[in-house]
Amino acid sequence: MTSKNMNGKINSDCYPQPFLLEPAFKSHLWGGTRLRDNFSKESHREIVAETWECSTHPDGPSLVASGAFRGQTLRRVLQSHPQWAGGPCPDGQLPVLLKLIDAKEDLSVQVHPDNQYARVHENGALGKTEMWYILDAAEGAAIVYGFLHPVTPQQIRQSVEQGCLQQHLRRIPVKKGDVFFIPAGMVHAVGAGILLAEIQQNSNITYRLYDYERRDENGFTRPLQLDQALAVARLSPSEPPCRLKGIIRFERGATLHPLCRCSYFQVEYLRLDTRRRHQFWYLNSTPHSFQILQCIQGCGSVFWEGKSLFFHRGDCIFVPAGTAKLGFHGQGELLKIQC
Fold first, then answer.
1. Cβ pair 278, 301 in contact under 8 A
2. CB atoms within 10 A of CB 266
3. Strand 281-283 to 194-201 pairing
4. 239 falls in which pLDDT band (50, 70, 90)?
5. Ramachandran sector of residue 36 (left: φ over 0; alpha: ψ -120 to 50; beta: rest)
6. pTM, two decimal places
7. What is the pLDDT of residue 218?
8. 71: alpha, beta or left, given left = phi > 0 and alpha = psi -120 to 50?
9. Model confidence band, residue 188 (pLDDT cutoffs 50, 70, 90)
10. Which residues contact 148 (CB under 8 A, 6 or more apart)?
């Protein structure tokens, strides 16, 4: 898509170009300060539990932080340029959402519905399947992933009432670099001391099953959604997830490891290393999908058609579908996401 201004010159704003995103910030009682301290996420909030890095969800929209559309929400930009999504983009809504999460304390034990349940019971919303990439983990940190043995709804209700649900839950120790796929219906929880990136469907539906009888800043226990949780939860034990076994690609200036591939998104770990002054790793765009690049370590620059964009640890880059070939230079680690 191109257009001309009143002087007859081509308006470059209509060309798809990469741009940085500014996240939406979320503060929860279990959050910490590492997103600010380690990833330069500047917020007026003392506690930052989550940053919604690439989000078109109305509960936490990302803003464009560079380029011609700076200051606009990503959703608004995609409403005016839906072709940049490369696929279905109803009302500027992307199918995925990317978060960074800092769990200073345990998150609640929770579960998310699938698309079918959400459409019927949540006003046509999407369900929520997600993937976690562990950025850092304290010694002894663990996640909850399903149940240790088959359980019944009656057992769950009784255990929640008695405050002993944990005896039924499977806990898995985690370390930096671990990957976990969390399908809709899987009961799960992020444990204390874990910093992670979450790639998920574009949904904010969570049914809280258990919250360790904690109280908020006003002294109230947080509400549970036990009926909805039991309606969607998988009550049979599941095998612990394993890292996707895929082909590692060695390219000039970069190595790419597949992390997750499902019906809703695919994720790769990208190690960028262009030590030579004029060496680049090239990203070929596709007209069929946008791409998201989240820098989790190091820094670098992106070059295209005489322009450049610098990025460092914590930055999120949105690459519209149909963007010209991009040259990357630097040393760092990134998560590469597309649909």
1. no
2. 19
3. unpaired
4. confident
5. alpha
6. 0.93
7. 78
8. left
9. very high
10. 168, 169, 170, 237
Higher pLDDT, 7 or 291: 291
Interatomic CA distance for residues 265 and 98, integer angstroms: 11
**Distance, C-alpha 130 to centroid of its chain:** 8
Among 256, 275, 259, smallest CA distance to 267 is for 259
Per-residue burial over 119-146, b if 16 or more Cβ lie within 10 Å, else e, is: eeeeeebbbbbbbbbbbbbeeebbbbbb
Kindly state the average pLDDT of the residues 83-110.
96
CA dist., res. 110 & res. 228, Å (int): 11
* Residue 158 to residue 184: CA distance in whole angstroms: 24
Contacts of 320 (CB under 8 A, 6+ apart): 16, 17, 18, 81, 84, 85, 86, 285, 290
Domains of the chain: 17-232 (2.60.120.10), 249-338 (2.60.120.10)
Look at the block and give the residue holding tokens 């609640």. Answer: 108
Contact 56, 339 (CB under 8 A): no
Which residues belong to the active site?
A: 208
Lookup result for tokens 């898995």: 172
pLDDT at 200: 98
